[in-house]
């Protein structure tokens, strides 16, 4: 049985462990906070306390941590750099084009092979027929990782050798998602102010779409973050990444700034950890003035 190492067992890392095992792979897992290995262990993964030991267990390592800063901190852990030679690292953490280039160069300088990827679905959907996972890098490295990557979902796409392609498409996809989120909040604001039930608006939206979750949360005035949701601070993080890309590339940042202003006001009002739909409360307060 092929073995794959998974570094990082947060929400998405655990989903990687689950889908790889379901796909017939054996998995070795490591996480910086050792307590958080328990779910991976209960799913059938072998767990290592030392990152380098986990690396040595497989020829392929999938990494899914908060950001590329965390990715580089992992590479600096004892024995990890020297374990990279001949191994394939598939980084599925979210980042920017510069992050992808830097990670690729660093791993290759240490003698490893590198694929850069992005996961465009929630952890609960990983492994499903529609789960979108993007991967970029050399074709022969993709061929090495293909069997493991195929376990991650029916929407796996190999984008070829341009190492920044996955993070660029991830940003573009995120931009569309943010427009849907804030467009839906504005739509609910129109309904509320004109006296038409937001439930009627929600009923018009596709059942498994983020827009429906947003409209229903606003109708119910329930801003608890559900499995298909995201908190205001998570949306802010996504918008900051989009803003940074716009600044660096010299493209217009106006749409992003409008959305950022709204999330910043929601955070000031204390909604940081609430569902992003809670931005409606900022718009409701504005109506009175
Ligand atoms: N969750 C989603 O809906 C979703 C969807 C698409 C993409 N993603 C992407 O998937 C990645 C992981 O997200 P997640 O939801 O799994 O986040 P999470 O549950 O917050 O887990 C974060 C992981 O990163 C690790 N980490 C953070 N800093 C580290 C460091 N300095 N050194 C080593 N490990 C470090 C954490 O280890 P500790 O446990 O030790 O803190 C944990 O394993 C992110 O890039 C995210 O953007 C997530």
Describe this structure in words.
It is a single chain. The chain is α/β, with parallel strands linked by helices. It has 2 domains: 3-163, Rossmann fold (3-Layer(aba) Sandwich), CATH 3.40.50.720; 168-287, N-(1-d-carboxylethyl)-l-norvaline Dehydrogenase, domain 2 (Orthogonal Bundle). It has 13 helices and 8 strands. The chain has helices at 11-22, 38-42, 51-56, 68-75, 80-83, 97-109, 139-150, 165-194, 198-203, 210-220, 232-249, 254-268, 280-287; strands at 3-7, 26-30, 46-47, 60-63, 88-91, 113-119, 132-136, 155-158. The protein has an 8-stranded mixed beta sheet with strand order 3-2-1-4-5-6-7-8, with helices on both faces. Helix 6 (97-109) links the parallel strand 5 and strand 6 (113-119). It is elongated. The mean pLDDT is 96. Bound molecules: NADP nicotinamide-adenine-dinucleotide phosphate. NADP nicotinamide-adenine-dinucleotide phosphate is lined by residues 8-13, 31-33, 36, 64-67, 70, 73-74, 93-94, 119, 122-123.
